[in-house]
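Supplementary notes for students who missed Thursday's class. We covered one full example, reproduced here. Read the sequence, then the structure, then the short commentary at the end.
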Amino acid sequence: MGAEQKWDRVAQVPSTVDTVTAWRAPQRRPVVVAVHGMEDSWQSWEKLTGLLGAEHQVYALDLPWRAGNDYRWRQYGSPAHWLHQGLQAIPEPVDVLLGHSFGANAVLQYLAHCGAAGPAARTAVLAAPFYRPSTLECDWSLYHQSFAGFRSVMTEGMRTRLGTRAAALEPELITSMADKLIERIGPMGFLALYDQFVATTELNLSQVPIPALVLAGEHDQGLAGDRAEALAEAMPMADVQLSPDFGHFFHVDHVVDAYERITAFLRVHLGGTETRPRDNTTRELRHDRTEPTHQLADNTEPLTATPYPNGHTA
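Structure (token representation):
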């Protein structure tokens, strides 16, 4: 016999003669931990996790780079550090790390720095991450280009949150609202994103030991041009898929498509065999996959594993 399982008593029907009781067997669903993007909220996952929740147990972390923060968190730890802290709050083993934008890059950084013990997850899903190929020089031109991209993404995020109301607003008003948003975020917010972007080149992604699904739009600047190809080459365990229909917030705007791609991937890597038919517009970037050796680069500091309340480690 294996370890004793905890059954739940769900109903009891008494009578004058005897009692009938119904017990429910323990059922563990795959655990998904969602990591939101910069100037966003854990509630931004509501549409996607509403669908994922039918087959998965979903947790959404509220992280320091939430909307309206002052960015002082950068003085006390990297995004990977704060993600590591958040994972310690999850009361059961994690199967999937799901990140969007800045949150996806926090997952990337965490995977690259988790050490020989490996990450506290079996798979990862990265929605609209950003990556800098080694061939892309870090100069003032890239800095200004990145700031323009930052403003564009923040404006797109604002439109996404406005929903159908955005269509009724004059373009001048949208521009004014975006100006105020960027002014409120300030240079510290942009630098937090830019530092992460520039540093992606140095992440040792070749040693990430778990399969990852990377989803992005073909024209999303974060993986535009040769950036997606470079990420696929740097991270052999990643399945990089680009769609011409996806914008930066496709997990909200194209939630059904995102859900279908994610669940098809998870059913393959979490014990199933289902595959999703590939549409003709999707670009899939693959490289030969080799098993990583779990060794860290000499300049990489591993995160310290901390026990969960139930004995699991992050």
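Commentary. The mean pLDDT is 85. The CA atoms of residues 116 and 295 lie 6 Å apart. If anything here is unclear, bring it to office hours.
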